[in-house]
Amino acid sequence: MSSLPKLAVVDVPDDLARPRDFGATYGAGVRRALVLGGGGIVFVAWQLAYLRALEERGVHLGDADRIVGTSAGSVVATLVASGRLRRAHFEIETLAKVPKLIAAMAPAQQLQRSQQVALERFWTADNCRPETVQAIGHVALAAVTPEVGTLPRSLRLVLALRRWPSPALHITAVDAFTGERCVIAETAGVPVHKAAAASSSVPGLFAPQPILDRRCMDGGAGGSGTHPDLVAGAERALVLALADRGDIGIATAEPGGFVRDVDALRASGTSVEVRTSRLPSDLMLMDPANVPTALMLGADQGAEDASGIRAFWT
């Protein structure tokens, strides 16, 4: 019986893994930072409408020195960094009239059993211990999902970018095998639509994405839907989050975790403004039928907040 050939294993290190650590002051030297959190296609719509309402009133956030995007926020952060907010807002208003087209671009209905298992494991996780995140990643890798290239292809059409739009842009994801939080920036050499696809790959809904030598899933699986530690030490930061879940642990975010993160960000010396959406808590975040509601609520809230945000940002 012949023995198996010995194969050379090439270790290609990367600098993507970055532990969550407010004490590291990752944002030192940053003057203004924008942090955009996750929440499905519905929160993409809300953020686009909210930010467009600010822009129409003279509040331009694309000049931030650092823009951090997680999951849904990674898509919007890319559009803000590229100066394409107006165009994207018009397009999603148009797509909202054809929800079946949105559903085709981000299929999240009629799940296989393996998908349901992975999604439930993710959604019900009330902590971000390494073994918890790794377990979520492993069932995400095993789930029978749409083909791995489906989401990147859709986002390539939506973002319409050939190059990384700005060195200010930082996108979060989680290594599905190791459970490490990864931060993808321009220096990684990863196409931005692939980085956003990895950050948006909800366990069970979409396949973990190849990022260099890793397979990465939703950035929200790393214990935070916003990852504000990446701007700790910045002069000022605006954080947009889906909601403050209070004492509820969900999707690896621990009970009270969002408030503790914001407190830690302020303790790092950063002046912080936080805005959370008024989207109903029972709204299905991946249902295209809810996009028109999100657009309306985001526009209304952005109009109300514009003067306060302008004073803070400038």
How would you explain this protein's 3D organization?
With 314 residues, this protein is of the alpha/beta class. It contains ten helices and eight strands. 39% of the residues lie in helices and 13% in strands. Strand 1, helix 1 and strand 2 form a beta-alpha-beta unit. The model has no long low-confidence stretch (mean pLDDT 92).
Give structural attributes.
single chain, 314 residues, alpha/beta, 10 helices, globular
Short description:
The protein is an alpha/beta fold and 314 residues long. The protein contains 10 helices and 8 strands. Helix 1 (40-56) crosses helix 10 (291-313), helix 5 packs antiparallel against helix 6 (130-142) and helix 7 (150-159) packs across helix 8 (192-199).
User: N-to-C terminal Cα separation, in Å?
Assistant: 74 Å
H/I helix tally = 10
- What would you call the shape? globular
Q: Roughly what is the average pLDDT, rounded to an integer?
A: 92
> How many whole angstroms does the radius of gyration measure?
19 Å
Residues in β-strands, percent = 5-15%
Q: Helix- and strand-based class? A: alpha/beta
Which stretches are poorly predicted, pLDDT < 50 over at least 5 residues? none
Number of strands: 8
Please provide the ordered H/E string of secondary-structure elements. Answer: EHEHHHHHHEEHEEEHEH
The main β sheet shows up as:
8 strands, mixed
Helix fraction bin:
25-40%
